[in-house]
């Protein structure tokens, strides 16, 4: 039973890939139950091979499900009437290389049965929207990946779709293009379009999606709004501009009066995602997709510093970065044996007024040294000449460290 | 029966002529331009393969213009040069265009599936059937463009050659009578071979059944088949051979030249001999009449001294023909040939040739036949390409094409021992799926000035059909329908339905290597 405002619905959707003899080799999607509602910007996340694209392909009729049902816009997958209301951008822009940008859009416009005038006006505005105005006559084969992506996006919008399915829409795009697409998704979402977004770029998903689902090993592990998934209910965080001690005292009083808007602090989606995947791995959930954190092959340079568990490194990003920073400091220590911390920088990070304009001496004993690393003697005069700041060597170095910490 | 076959085959022909027009109407009013969008895309895809296009232009120049210069500068009579040019340039064109049709028909669909461009199209409001038919539509247009262009070039160059290579009146006459013309070839009326064979088989089999007390119908049927084969060989030799000092007569019907008052009809023959003389030549005396030879013989005796196993001909004034188009020809084997008996083989022994149409009309028919062949290949290519990868599909189609070119030989070789169970139950049906390009090849006809078979006979060679299927057993309806349908059209239809269904229901996102 499809709910009236349910745009995509799957019930026990399963896809098994079999070999020539009919033996099941891979279960790409396993018992997927998913509902995406009208006007929603839904993000489908998952590591490589988790079944995201397979799900999309089943929804579009490019693959037949082994078991289960799915309905898109109330119709079974592949229905022609349904396709009229869908815009689809695959994980790569599969475009005819011999057509130019205008011809490509014109071809798809014809398939949608648009009139000549309508095609022309839509093509013009879409080409302008994706920033390819100067490249309409070049064959698509000559386009860069990002440009192909843009024209791919344009073709997915030529029919003014009610449902937009975007598979990795920002892959290959420059930051400007990425930003543009994110804005576009938000804008389309605000206009009531339903968008299914499939992406590895968690920041993108976090920026634009109202609800996300995380897949691993063909199964949906988590589903919910970003607030639901990322809220840390056990603690409270107040974020504000710089406050004086008096103001802090006041806040304490206000909190006691319960007259302040208090938000539950949010975890970063990236951390959350990695935690879910790590958990699934630790539970030995079967997957046909890529595994995380394989060791670097021995033939690739020195195997002395073998990475251990990349996922935990990523989760424990802070500690890792601190260690790295310390390690970097250790390397640079012989150059500046005594350092002073820039208190302005610290205060900007910690918002501590009292700490401002004070310098805390940091000696080389405070910083762990690499025991095996030979000490390098450096010509300080030469460094001064190169940096052209002979009076502030320690401060510069500290700025770099702060940048790394950031 | 012939009329029935003509009635059946005519709509099929019209269907193929009308198909592109029908598709256009369907697209315009039902599919709202979707078919045309796909078809136009196929054309653009092919025309924008620059390497392929340059190669095609190079080949076209090679076998049209360069070959003409080479033939023109060679030795031989002027009319023969034109004949040679026409034959080779058209043959080469057909071969190249066939390979081209194989290549583009497979490529246009398999590339799209492999490169996944099809993902973008099938997720749009277009049925897969429309994509399939749209591509077919595009291939029809492409093949049409290529056939028209190459046909036009060869026609122009042929006429230029005719103007520059023919240097005297004799050559010009031969050119007009034998090359740049459409002639019908009339075989003699049946020599009653089958009837005679049947009579002897009946007699002999009755005798054997009585002697051996045979009751099992299967055994009797097998025995009759064996007898038929043996008697056929004996009777054929008896009916077509002439001992020294004996004569054989041939009766021709329905000779209807377009201009009955002027020009000639040609008696063409090819003799063989039992006990070949040392000179390998035989002397023959010919007489001909417009009525049964026993009543009136008006022709002078035409004596020939011809090399065996070579085609020869002599001409007769058209005015000597009967009003109803009948002609009786009698051959007497000279006593000087003793002991050689002269044989006129059933298929190639003797025929009457007469002008039945213009070269231009004949040439158009020839191009139309070539176009139909390309369409058949394209349908096969598209169908196979819909479920197989490009290299595999190409290999299969090239093998099928080559088999089609050699199918007479292969069919003969395979059906030599046609009594075997494997042949009856399997090979017979498998071989139906092999196209027969030799039987429907229009190029040898146009080369000899032979009228290319009529449009209603494009799909089935009626004469061959009658000869092949008029076996000792009476023709059964299911056999007739089988033959009628189980030819190129049937094969093409089956394969295209299979291709469409596999394209319709296959998982496009799954790669098949």
Secondary-structure map:
The complex is a heterodimer of chains A (406) and B (513).
Chain A (H helix, E strand, L loop, with lengths): L5 E13 L5 E14 L3 E5 L6 H8 L7 E6 L7 H4 L2 E4 L11 H11 L4 H14 L15 H13 L5 E5 L7 H16 L3 E5 L3 H7 L2 E6 L2 E7 H5 L14 H13 L11 H14 L27 H6 L1 H16 L5 E3 L2 H8 L10 E3 L16 H8 L5 H13 L1
Parallel strand pairs in A: 3-7, 3-8, 5-6, 6-7
Antiparallel strand pairs in A: 1-2, 1-4, 8-9, 10-11
Chain B lengths: L1 H28 L4 H14 L2 H23 L5 H37 L2 H6 L5 H38 L3 H11 L2 E5 L6 H20 L4 H24 E2 L4 E6 L11 E7 L1 E3 L6 E9 L12 E6 L3 E7 L9 E7 L7 E3 L6 E8 L1 H27 L4 H16 L1 H8 L6 H12 L10 H5 L14 H8 L7 H9 L2 H18 L8
What does this structure look like?
The complex is a heterodimer of chains A (406) and B (513). With 406 residues, chain A is an alpha/beta fold. In chain A, 38% of the residues lie in helices and 17% in strands. In chain A, strand 6, helix 6 and strand 7 (194-198) form a beta-alpha-beta unit. Helix content of chain B is 59%, strand content 12%. Chain B has a four-stranded antiparallel beta sheet with strand order 1-11-4-8. A four-stranded antiparallel beta sheet of chain B has the order 3-9-6-7, with no helix packed on it. In chain B, strands 2-10-5 form a three-stranded antiparallel beta sheet. The radius of gyration of chain B is 27 Å and the shape is globular. The two termini of chain B are 48 Å apart. Chain A binds chain B through residues 17, 57, 60-64, 78, 80-81, 83-84, 86, 88, 90, 92, 94-96, 98-99, 103, 107-108, 110-113, 139, 152, 155, 159, and chain B through 32-34, 36-38, 41, 44-45, 48-49, 115-127, 507-510.
Write a compact overview of the structure shown.
The complex is a heterodimer of chains A (about 400) and B (about 525). By secondary structure, chain A is α/β, with parallel strands linked by helices. Chain A is about 40% helix and about 15% strand.
Q: Helix fraction of chain A?
A: 25-40%
The protein's oligomeric status is heterodimer
Q: Quote the average pLDDT of chain A.
A: 71
- Assess the beta-strand content of chain B as a share of residues: 5-15%
Structural class of chain A: alpha/beta
User: Beta fraction of the residues of chain A?
Assistant: 15-25%
Termini separation of chain B (Å)? 48 Å
Order of strands across the main sheet of chain B? 1-11-4-8
Please mark out the parts of chain B with pLDDT under 50 across 5 or more consecutive residues, or reply none.
Answer: 455-475, 482-486
């Amino acid at each position: 039973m499809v709910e009236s405002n349910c745009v995509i619905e799957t019930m026990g959707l399963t896809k098994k890939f079999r070999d020539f003899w009919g033996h099941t080799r891979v279960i790409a999607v396993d018992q997927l139950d998913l509902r995406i509602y009208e006007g929603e910007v839904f993000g489908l996340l998952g590591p490589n091979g988790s079944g995201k694209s397979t799900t999309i392909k089943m929804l579009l009729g490019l693959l037949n499900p082994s078991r289960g049902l799915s309905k898109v816009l109330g119709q079974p997958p592949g229905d022609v009437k349904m396709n009229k209301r869908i815009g689809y951008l695959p994980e790569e822009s599969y475009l005819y290389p011999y057509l130019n940008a205008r011809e490509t859009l014109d071809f798809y416009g014809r398939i949608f049965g648009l009139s000549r005038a309508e095609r022309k006006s839509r093509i013009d505005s879409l080409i302008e929207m994706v920033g390819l105005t100067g490249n309409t006559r070049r064959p698509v084969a000559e386009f860069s990946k990002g440009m192909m992506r843009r024209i791919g996006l344009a073709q997915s919008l030529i029919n003014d779709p009610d449902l937009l399915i975007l598979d990795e829409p920002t892959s290959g795009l420059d930051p400007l293009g990425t930003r543009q697409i994110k804005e576009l998704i938000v804008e389309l979402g605000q206009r009531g379009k339903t968008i299914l977004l499939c992406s590895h770029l968690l920041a993108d998903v976090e920026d634009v999606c109202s609800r996300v689902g995380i897949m691993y090993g063909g199964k949906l592990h988590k589903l919910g709004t970003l607030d639901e998934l990322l809220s840390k209910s056990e603690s409270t965080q107040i974020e504000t501009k710089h406050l004086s001690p008096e103001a802090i005292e006041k806040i304490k009083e206000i909190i006691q009066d319960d007259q302040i808007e208090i938000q539950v602090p949010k975890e970063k989606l990236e951390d959350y995602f990695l935690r879910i995947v790590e958990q699934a791995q630790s539970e030995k959930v079967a997957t046909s997709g890529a595994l995380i954190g394989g060791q670097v092959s021995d033939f690739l340079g020195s195997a002395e510093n073998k990475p251990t568990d990349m996922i935990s490194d990523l989760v424990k990003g802070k500690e890792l970065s601190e260690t790295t920073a310390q390690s970097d400091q250790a390397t640079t220590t012989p150059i500046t044996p005594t350092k002073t911390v820039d208190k302005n920088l610290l205060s900007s990070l910690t918002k501590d007024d009292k700490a401002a304009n004070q310098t805390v001496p940091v000696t080389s004993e405070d910083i762990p040294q690499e025991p095996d690393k030979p000490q390098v003697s450096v010509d300080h005069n030469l460094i001064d000449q190169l940096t052209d700041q002979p009076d502030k060597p320690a401060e510069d170095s500290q700025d770099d460290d702060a940048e790394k910490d950031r | 029966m012939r009329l029935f076959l003509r009635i059946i085959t005519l709509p099929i022909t019209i269907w193929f002529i009308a198909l592109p027009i029908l598709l256009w109407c369907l697209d315009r009013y039902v599919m709202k331009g979707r078919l045309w969008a796909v078809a136009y895309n196929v054309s653009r895809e092919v025309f924008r393969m620059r390497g392929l296009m340059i190669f095609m232009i190079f080949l076209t120049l090679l076998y049209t213009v360069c070959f003409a210069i080479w033939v023109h500068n060679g030795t031989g009579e002027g009319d023969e040069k034109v004949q040679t040019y026409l034959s080779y340039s058209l043959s080469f064109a057909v071969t190249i265009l066939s390979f081209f049709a194989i290549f583009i028909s497979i490529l246009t669909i398999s590339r799209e599936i492999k490169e996944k461009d099809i993902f973008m199209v099938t997720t749009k409001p277009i049925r897969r059937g429309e994509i399939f038919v749209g591509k077919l539509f595009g291939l029809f247009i492409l093949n049409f463009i290529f056939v028209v262009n190459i046909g036009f070039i060869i026609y122009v160059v042929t006429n230029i050659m005719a103007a520059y290579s023919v240097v005297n009146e004799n050559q010009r006459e031969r050119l007009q009578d034998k090359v740049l013309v459409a002639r019908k070839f009339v075989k003699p009326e049946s020599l009653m071979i089958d009837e005679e064979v049947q009579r002897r088989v009946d007699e002999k089999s009755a005798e054997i059944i009585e002697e051996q007390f045979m009751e099992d119908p299967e055994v009797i049927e097998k025995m009759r088949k064996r007898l038929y084969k043996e008697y056929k060989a004996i009777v054929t030799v008896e009916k077509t051979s002439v001992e020294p000092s004996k004569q054989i007569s041939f009766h021709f019907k329905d000779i209807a030249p377009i201009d009955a008052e002027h020009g000639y009809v040609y008696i063409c023959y090819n003799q063989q001999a039992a006990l070949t003389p040392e000179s390998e030549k035989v002397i023959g005396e010919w007489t001909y009449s417009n009525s049964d030879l026993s009543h009136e013989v008006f022709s002078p005796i035409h004596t020939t001294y011809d090399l065996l196993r070579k085609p020869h001909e002599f001409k007769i004034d058209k005015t000597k023909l009967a009003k109803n188009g009948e002609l009786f020809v009698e051959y007497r084997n000279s006593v000087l040939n003793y002991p050689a008996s002269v044989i006129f083989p059933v298929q190639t022994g003797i025929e009457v040739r007469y002008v039945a149409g213009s070269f231009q009309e004949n040439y158009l028919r020839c191009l139309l036949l070539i176009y139909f062949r390309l369409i058949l290949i394209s349908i096969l290519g598209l169908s196979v390409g819909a479920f197989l990868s490009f290299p595999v599909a190409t290999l299969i189609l090239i093998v099928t094409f080559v088999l089609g070119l050699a199918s007479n030989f292969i069919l003969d070789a395979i059906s030599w021992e046609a009594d075997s169970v494997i042949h009856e139950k399997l090979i017979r049906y498998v071989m139906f799926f092999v196209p027969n390009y030799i039987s429907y090849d229009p190029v040898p006809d146009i080369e000899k000035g032979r009228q290319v078979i009529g449009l209603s006979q494009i799909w089935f060679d009626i004469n061959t059909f009658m000869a092949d299927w008029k076996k000792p057993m009476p023709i059964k309806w299911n056999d007739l329908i089988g033959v009628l349908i189980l030819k190129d059209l049937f094969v093409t239809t089956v394969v295209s339905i299979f291709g469409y269904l596999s394209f319709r229901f296959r998982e496009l996102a799954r790669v098949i290597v």
